[in-house]
Automatic annotation (TrEMBL):
This is ABC-2 type transport system permease protein. Keywords: Membrane, Transmembrane, Transmembrane helix. Residues 1-22 are annotated as: Disordered. The chain crosses the membrane at residues 46-68, 88-107, 134-160, 204-225, 261-283. The keyword Transmembrane helix applies. It comes from the Bacteria. It comes from Nocardiopsis sinuspersici.
């Protein structure tokens, strides 16, 4: 006896379809929240940010006095940038290494402790996991450095209220706010660059050396070469691109082909995104 066959019904919905945009955003938000919990639960994050704030609060007033001295001696122009803002810019290059110290362990510590396995089990989509790390870190660094820049600007300005420094302490709130945001964008880009390098190399020592060379070592070596090509290349590396973005007055006059602020910002973002793209490629192709 043959068993009657049922007529074919509609196909069952596939479970292999990619999630829709709403689901993808929800998953990314959940992963970002988890990365933020990990970031804020590590003592090194708060120690690094506290060190950066301390450096800004201590160095900015001293740098302001040094800048005014250079202005009075005619070594730097006194009309282009208020001394308080120049002091914060000068301090920023010290603070960036504390920011690097915050960003680097966010990736390399997971590889050294092998906790990357549990992270990838929780978020199997590796690019999503890396994106979540970058979003949580970038938001933290941006907010923290806006606070640091504001503190540094105000302290440097307070020093210049002394009668000895009369004429150099004018503070324009709107311009100062723009400068603080630009400084925060630069430091955030440096933190993203650090995450990309750390994801690529996976070793704290190797990543720190590479970032240091990109930020400071390589530009200095190119400038010391004294060639026109070396100066041109140095101006396109993250350090001088960031200077051009934050305040081109530091490089215009020293470089014949100095970048404008918009171009410097674009070059800086390209460095950060390129580092992140290489890190994502390595993360997808190599075993954890």
């Amino acid at each position: 006896m043959t068993t009657p066959t049922r007529p074919p019904g509609p196909a069952a919905p596939s479970t292999d379809r990619a999630p829709g945009p709403a689901r993808a955003l929800s998953d990314l938000a959940a992963a970002t929240s988890a990365e933020w919990v990990k970031l804020r639960s590590v003592r090194s994050t708060w120690w690094g940010l506290a060190t950066a704030l301390l450096l800004m609060a201590v160095v900015a007033p001293g740098a302001a006095v040094s800048v005014i001295s250079n202005m009075q001696n005619g070594l730097v122009p006194s009309a282009d940038v208020p001394a308080s803002e120049m002091a914060v810019y000068a301090t920023m290059w010290v603070v960036q290494f504390a920011v690097i110290a915050v960003a680097l362990p966010a990736v390399t510590s997971e590889y050294s402790s092998r906790s990357i396995h549990s992270t990838l089990q929780a978020v199997p989509a590796r690019v999503r996991m890396l994106t979540a790390k970058v979003l949580s870190l970038a938001a933290t660094v941006f907010v923290a450095t806006v606070v640091m820049g504001t503190v540094g600007t105000l302290l440097a300005h307070l020093v210049m209220l002394h009668p000895v420094f009369e004429g150099y302490g004018t503070l324009h709130p709107k311009d100062a706010a723009v400068d603080v945001v630009r400084m925060a964008v630069y430091l955030t880009a440096v933190s993203v660059l650090t995450v990309g390098v750390g994801t690529t190399l996976r070793s704290a020592a190797a990543a720190l050396t590479t970032v240091f060379m990109l930020i400071l070592g390589l530009p200095v070596m190119l400038l010391l070469m004294g060639s026109e090509m070396g100066v041109h290349l140095a101006g396109r590396l993250p350090f001088f691109a960031g200077i051009s973005f934050v305040d081109s007055a530091f490089v215009i006059g020293s470089f014949d082909d100095a970048l404008s602020p918009p171009t410097g910002g674009t070059v800086l973002v390209c460095w950060a995104l390129a580092s992140l793209a290489v890190g994502a490629l390595v993360l997808r192709r190599r075993d954890a």
